[in-house]
Amino acid sequence: MRPQSIERFEKVYLGSIALGLVNTALNWGQLTASVQKATTGGVVLGPSVMIVSIALGLVISLLLWFFIVRRASNVAKWIFVVITAIGVFGVLSSLVNPSAPKGLAMIGGLAATALQVFAAWLLFKPDAAEWLESKGASGAGDPSTFD
Fold first, then answer.
1. Which of 84, 93, 96, 124 has a CA positioned 20 to 30 A from the CA of residue 134?
2. Distances (CA, A) of 98 to 34, 65, 85, 95
3. What is residue 114's three-state secondary structure?
4. pLDDT in tens, 80-129
């Protein structure tokens, strides 16, 4: 059985993913406008780049969720922590970037990032850390009890 911190992590992390998707949907026009302003080698980036980026981000997020919560992967935990730290840096730098989306998009992004930071913190609580270190074999419901 998974410890309480992992159960909370699951809810908070999935909530942050859902909040991010809702934030993207609510602010689609503002976000696509800011992406269309960005250029790479003179090529204007269109909405299809955003759609692919969102889909790829969702796949990565769900894979991290699966490997942390269902497979008790300590490696996935650290990948999640690094991605979360990069996300915090990105959100903080967008606060001072005049071309970054503002208003509701910024508030939603800050809220989703705060949830991810909280989720990362939950992974370092003693019960979660022990469970992840043991690959899910320790804690209540230890399968080795009946060996």
1. 84
2. 11, 33, 22, 8
3. helix
4. 999 999 999 988 888 887 767 778 888 888 999 999 999 999 999 999 99
The interaxial angle of helices 4-26 and 47-65, nearest 10 deg, is 170
Both tokens assigned to 142: 């230890």
- At 43, phi and psi to the nearest 5? -95, 125
- Residues facing 44 on adjacent strands: 39
Contacts of 33-39 spanning 24+ positions with Cβ under 8 A = 34/99, 34/100, 34/101, 37/99
Amino acid at 15: G
Provide the phi-psi class of 107: left if phi over 0, else alpha when psi is between -120 and 50, else beta.
alpha
CB neighbour class for 146 (10 Å; exposed up to 12, middle 13-18, buried from 19): exposed
Extended beta strands in the chain, E state = 39-40, 43-44
- For the record, the structure tokens of 77 come out as 């935990």
How many angstroms separate the CA atoms of 77 and 124, rounded?
Answer: 9
pTM of the model: 0.81
